Amino acid sequence: MYRLEIACGDDWPGLIEAASSAILAVMPDLSVGRRQKVGCTSVNAYTRHWPCLFPQHGRGMKHTRKIELVSWQRQIVDEYTQEFVRGLIHSDGCRGANRVRRTLPDGDRWYEYPRYFFTNASDDIRQLFTDALDRLGIAWTQSNARVISVARREAVARLDEFVGPKY
């Protein structure tokens, strides 16, 4: 028997509900449990069929093993690319304000602009994220080894159309 466990921050109760609903949408006969931890709630369900749906499952940390979509998963991601990106941002990303200071002769000038960040230790998962952004025509840059940034005005506006706030 395998357990799928999704850790959800308590600051976003809507994501806890969404995780539970997603499990039930895929496996309607399962009992979905919740376990409270410090600062988060784990949403979980047991079935022997999880490896069929997640063939990437394996021992060890996900950033130390190959994460690759099989053909039927790729078809789903290609069809629901916006939802895939939204899910990745809601799990390992954020939308925030970047504050910049410019030093000018008459004093400092501050300005802010919105941007999205996505952070993940897995090269493969970051690649899945950036491939999805490319399919949607959304410009991105790699801020450092683990962080993808979306900062161009039109790119942020495009993500705002379908990502929405965490809730």
Word description of this protein:
- The structure is a single chain.
- The model has no long low-confidence stretch (mean pLDDT 93).
- The chain has 167 residues and is of the alpha+beta class.
- The strands form 2 sheets. The protein has a 4-stranded antiparallel sheet with strand order 4-5-7-6. A 3-stranded antiparallel sheet has the order 1-3-2, covered by helices on one side.
- The radius of gyration is 18 Å and the shape is globular.
- Helix 4 (81-92) packs across helix 5 (123-136).
- It is built from 6 helices and 7 strands.
- The protein folds into 2 domains: 1-54; 65-167, Endonuclease I-creI, CATH 3.10.28.10.
- The longest helix has 14 residues, at 13-26.
Topology:
Blueprint (H helix, E strand, L loop, with lengths): L1 E8 L3 H14 L6 E5 L2 E8 L2 H4 L17 H9 L1 H12 E12 L2 E13 L3 H14 L4 E4 L2 E4 L2 H10 L5
Antiparallel strand pairs: 1-3, 2-3, 4-5, 5-7, 6-7
Helix pairs in contact: 4-5
Give a quick precis of the structure.
The protein is α+β, with helices and mostly antiparallel strands and 167 residues long. It contains 6 helices and 7 strands. Helix content is 38%, strand content 32%.
